[in-house]
Amino acid sequence: MEFPASVKQQSCQDCLSGQSLGFQIKMAFQPIIDWQTQSIFAYEALVRGPDGQGAAWVFERINKDNRYYFDQACRVKAIESAARLGCNTYLNINFMPNAVYNPETCIKATLEACDLYGFDKKRIIFEVIESEEIPDKAHLNRIFKSYAKHGFLTAIDDYGSGFANQQWLQELRPHILKLDMSLIRDIDQSPAKQLIVENTLTECELQGTKVLAEGIESAAELAYLTSVGVRYLQGYYFAKPALESLVPLADLQGLAQ
Fold first, then answer.
1. Which of 160, 250, 247, 246 is nearest to 211 (CA)?
2. Parallel, antiparallel or unpaired: strands 90-95 and 39-48
3. Which of 41, 16, 54, 24 is nearest to 243 (CA)?
4. How far, in whole angstroms, is CA 100 from its chain's centroid?
5. In this structure, which topology does domain 12-248 adopt according to CATH?
6. Range in 6-10, 55-59, 127-131, 159-163 with the lowest mean pLDDT
């Protein structure tokens, strides 16, 4: 995949200006729990509009012409906001693989932001999200290898509902696999979902991939997931995303504090 000549490489400051998008963005942060240590493992940065509008409002304004700029702006804004708020955990940043034309070129603004705001790049986890097209596996593999070379961790999001399957998991070997909320919802009552999750846990253990369950909303879902050994957890049961704020450990629900 070649880097189009029409797309200008952005700097960190270009991304923060919002000029390339035509509107400003903000970030909300949702904690990810390490159940074993009863601590916050990471915060996921989730894009919001200038007045806190939800992600749907933002994505309605994203198209093929500004997709690259949007992807770059989200990365830089997440790093700037996390650093300003004093984030000292891992930081999960979503990225659109179809917006990454050349991994080494497209990562420059991210590296610049880490240096500028003093955020350790080894605490960044890049999550692949689905876009309007199914990503090319070879291209995504190149992205993962390039990011690993720079010290970034990688994750596959929405596993169980999107493009990713067992073959993708085995070939891409992400650091983290996020089980989609469609698998998690009422899993305590669904033997079929339980079988999928337990088989996925076995596969991930064999290749050294951490498993994270997202979208947890009930004590029963939590109880099942922890009983089968899912260590990393995320969902409204613990805390909703907080606009321009990091929810502290003391304010989380469902932990033994």
1. 160
2. parallel
3. 54
4. 15
5. TIM Barrel (3.20.20)
6. 6-10
Report the 10 Å Cβ neighbour count for 146.
17
Burial of 133 per CB tally in 10 Å (0-12, 13-18, 19+): exposed
CB 134 within 8 A of CB 169: no
User: Is 94 in contact with 74 (CB distance < 8 Å)?
Assistant: yes
Domain boundaries, the chain: 12-248
Q: Is the pLDDT of residue 5 over 90?
A: no
- Taking alpha carbons only, the member of 244, 243, 242 closest to residue 252 is 242
Which range (4-18, 114-128, 241-255) has the least confidence? Answer: 4-18
Q: DSSP secondary-structure letter at 9? A: P
In order, the DSSP letters of 88-115 are -SEEEEEE-GGG-SSHHHHTHHHHHHHH
**Which tokens go with 146?**
């390039």
Q: Which long-range contacts (CB under 8 A, 24 or more apart) does 45-48 make?
A: 45/74, 45/77, 45/78, 45/81, 45/82, 45/91, 45/92, 45/93, 45/94, 46/94, 46/241, 47/74, 47/77, 47/94, 48/243
**Mean pLDDT in residue range 126-154:** 82
Q: Are 83 and 119 in contact (CB under 8 A)?
A: yes
Residues of the chain by 3-state class (helix, strand, coil), percent to 5: 40, 20, 40
Q: Is it the case that residue 12 has pLDDT exceeding 70?
A: no
